[in-house]
Amino acid sequence: MVSKSYSNLLELASGEAPSFGYMTRRIPRIMTVAGLISDVDDDPVESVCSDPSSSTVHRDRIIMVANQLPIRAQRKLEGGKSCWSFEWDKNSLLQLKDGLGDEDIEVIYVGCLKEEVHTSEQDEVSQLLLETYKCVPTFLPPDQFTRYYHGFCKQQLWPLFHYMLPLSPELGGRFNRSLWQAYVSVNKIFADRIMEVINPEDDYVWIHDYHLMVLPTFLRKRFNRVKLGFFLHSPFPSSEIYKTLPVREEILRALLNSDLIGFHTFDYARHFLSCCSRMLGLTYESKRGYIGIEYYGRTVSIKILPVGIHMGQLQSVLKLPQTEEKVCELIRQFSDKGRTMLLGVDDMDIFKGISLKLLAMEQLLIQHPEYQGRVVLVQIANPARGRGKDVKEMQAETKATVKRINETFGKPGYDPIILIEEPLKFYERVAYYVVAECCLVTAVRDGMNLIPYEYIISRQGNETLDKVLGLASSPKKKSMLVVSEFIGCSPSLSGAIRVNPWNIDAVADAMDSALEMADSEKQLRHEKHYRYVSTHDVGYWARSFLQDLERTCSDHVRRRWWGIGFGLSFRVVALDPNFKKLSMEHIVSAYKRTKTRAILLDYDGTLMPQASIDKSPSNKSIEILSSLCRDKNNMVFLVSARSRKMLSDWFAPCENLGIAAEHGYFLRMKRDEEWETHVAGTDCGWKQIAEPVMKLYTETTDGSTIEDKETALVWCYEDADPDFGSCQAKELLDHLESVLANEPVTVKSGQSNVEVKPQGVSKGLVAKRLLSSMQEKGMCPDFVLCIGDDRSDEDMFEVITSSVGGPIVPRAEVFACTVCRKPSKAKYYLDDTAEIVRLLQGLASVSEQVLSFSEQLK
């Protein structure tokens, strides 16, 4: 299949529309130079603003991106020459083509090879892998790969994500800026490699694991509308751990440039959401079963689904004659001698809990001497993936512990622990699964860990293995699992004995329970596990993720996209095509040619920044509003949630300013007029019910306060812990709705607050009343400006936009404007309060000029 690709990257830098051409079959090699590039790319013009009319949606290609390609490479001698030979890595989780079950989907893989390829051979290898395996290799200089993978990934991210803080140089690696720069550099090289094969309008990109967490930013910067998913295969730590990372925000923002982010368990997702809330101030919500984070107009979806295993591959290995031979050998070694095998399969890693497992075995033999000579723990220790002092210490401790236990409890011809350090072939490992009575996974922290899944399928076996094991035809199979509470697969294995691996006595008791449990109970647990594992294989996981990615990206084509920010702070804003920035020239021109104007302004977040400590208006704001009010053609109204006393005091110099206080419950058209009430005869007796409830939540939520207005009560948690405050707010909302069900009030959740106010009061009704009042006075407006920043202001936007062409506003130029680019009923936006003040100052200047000219004529 031929793919379209950006043919000339210089077009991106020039800001011209990209041209599409056909990709030649030969991929140019990415030249990499040893050394560092800067950790940020500050060229904002590389960002492409996508035009929604330029593409059609089809799902025909998936680009799978991971640190390593699912390929095994080795050198062979052919005809006296050394050449490369390649084959699929059957142990790789990402070899998904067979698992997707859709022949119409093409999968392209992008990643590194495990073996180093000389520069002179890289073109040839790239061509061969693309044509034969549809793989695009990323070549990195050895020094750069070491600093990226063995440096930042393995010394800093891996320990931190497994809850190890670098409290001393011996405990994990201290943050090293040069290693971080190498990490960013490699992620950018991956982005360049992907750009050579991607058709950004049609292809789906699926990035895997912590090695490439900033890659989404580089791709999103080049192609704003790219359809991008990310799946984290490791744990994600709690916010208290993650916040110690100096580049915490850069990584979070990079991940949020994805459309869909996947995690194995809810705990990992919850920690990520908590970090987004605490460090970026973002909120999330669940709609119809989907969790989403609103991020600059985009909804970043969160997917929680544990990965599965390759069922077909494992079942085919079970049928191999080599597997049968190995099973026979193990039966002679253990079963025929009356010995029961317990099995552990782990990488030689400090987080796998191998030493704790060995100590638990020792405790079992001490507490139950009858098992001595009868029970054997076979510990398969796969080679370590990382390097360093901790790995060497782990190996030495493991060997020493095994030697000590075997010397203590061993007998001639019997060792209670057999440590296998040499690499085993997959069929050999499967044979151990088949024979083992119980599998032990006691990692102190792990991402998913598919060993229990492989064990369950292997214990299910097949007819041939049943005969070897001496089982009757089609018997009920049995298996037992002892798993750590701290691994990702634990929640999905409800029939396993879950343990705290740090509690050695509890692990020993679990081993005893697994050995002594009745066969009928083991069979029931096995059946339950087998049903789950066999139906939730890697194909199910991949299809489910891609379906959600397709759903999340379904509206890309109809939205407009803007790139903002520099370097790793880059993000995109996705908005309705009709939503645009309010131009000063446009509104000033309309202001000059109109004669009857209505101006409605929110205060907090609009004229005054939300983060400001002093909330009173500046002298400049007072002068601008006074100038606007002096223009007889203007009706200026301030619509705020604040109390009438506060607003009266603040804006006393503005004689002709209309004010709507407490969301419009109190109104006055000018300073010297009496206040009117929007809802007559409101009884505030409900406060006696609501206030004690709010006080209860204030006492239990540190940092929260109560604001008592004349007609409303507001519980604010802006200064409270964001997670706890949000949780308490939801509880308070339900509590108040329950106790105030028969009262004439509404309970609403706002930005860091919960408010109780009389029914029938809203800013939208204020706007409607003002426009109607102007019409009754024969002042039908031909210019309407409404500016606000939050949810309560959306009511005003809706009223004024729907009134155009109606009896209230038959002909008018309407400007509904929100603050910041975000989903809104307003048609326009301005970036911040400073721009709003400049806009109002521009309009005030026009009024002052007209007034000055009129006085000169007199």
Automatic annotation (TrEMBL):
Source organism phylogeny: Eukaryota, Viridiplantae, Streptophyta, Embryophyta, Tracheophyta
Family classification: In the C-terminal section; belongs to the trehalose phosphatase family. In the N-terminal section; belongs to the glycosyltransferase 20 family.
Catalytic activity: D-glucose 6-phosphate + UDP-alpha-D-glucose = alpha,alpha-trehalose 6-phosphate + UDP + H(+)
Name of the top EC class for this enzyme: transferase
Keyword match Phosphoprotein: yes
Keywords associated with the record: Glycosyltransferase, Phosphoprotein, Transferase
An example Gene Ontology molecular-function term: alpha,alpha-trehalose-phosphate synthase (UDP-forming) activity
Species this chain originates from: Flemingia macrophylla
One Gene Ontology term from the biological process aspect of the record: trehalose metabolic process
Top-level lineage group: Eukaryota
The enzyme's E.C. designation: 2.4.1.15
Protein known as: alpha,alpha-trehalose-phosphate synthase (UDP-forming)
InterPro entries, per the entry: Glyco_trans_20, HAD-like_sf, HAD-SF_hydro_IIB, HAD_sf, Trehalose_PPase
